[in-house]
Amino acid sequence: MRRPRYASSKRTLNASKGKSVEEIVRELKNAVHPAEDYRERSLKLHGLICAKCGREFEEKDRHLLTVHHRDGNHSNNPPDGSNWENLCAYCHEDEHSRGLLGDYLKGKGG
Fold first, then answer.
1. How many whole angstroms separate alpha carbon 76 and alpha carbon 68?
2. CA–CA dist 30, 57 (Å, integer)
3. Interacting residues of 72 by C-beta distance below 8 A, sequence separation 6+
4. Which residues pair with 87 in a beta bridge?
5. What is the CA radius of gyration of the chain?
6. What is the spatial distance between Cα 45 and Cα 104, in angstroms, rounded to a whole number?
7. Spatial separation of the C-alpha atoms in residues 36 and 89, rounded to whole Å
8. How many CB atoms lie within 10 A of CB 77?
9. 8 Å CB contact between 42 and 84
């Protein structure tokens, strides 16, 4: 039985000529999950420290740090990390609840 040929697979093969397996795998990972690695990049760039309270974390506690997008756009992930700040879970919650509390106090909340 003949397998159908797909034009997209042909393009992929032509585009990958001359690249190492590692480069191809890296490109595929970024194509499938382009924003997932921004957390790791932010932790490397900014360190294991909360930008708000200054608490320092050890490697074993790194899961307590979150990446806050300064402009609120989770798709805005520049490679220089200018839209990120590492915040501990408490400061991150505080950062996101400030707007809700302000709206409530102004009578805009539900």
1. 11
2. 28
3. none
4. 66
5. 21
6. 36
7. 18
8. 20
9. yes
What is residue 87's three-state secondary structure? strand
Phi, psi torsion values for 49, nearest 5 degrees: -145, 140
The whole-angstrom separation of Cα 106 and Cα 28 is 47
Report pTM.
0.60
Q: Which residues contact 31 (CB under 8 A, 6 or more apart)?
A: none
Check residue 104 and give its pLDDT.
Answer: 81
Which candidate, 103, 10, 14, 89, places its Cα nearest to that of 52?
89
* Mean pLDDT in residue range 12-41: 71
Q: What is the pLDDT of residue 81?
A: 93
Check: CB of residue 67 under 8 Å from CB of residue 86. Answer: yes
What is the CB neighbour count within 10 angstroms for residue 91? 20
- Rounded CA-CA distance 95/104 in Å is 15
In which residue are the tokens 């909340």 written?
109
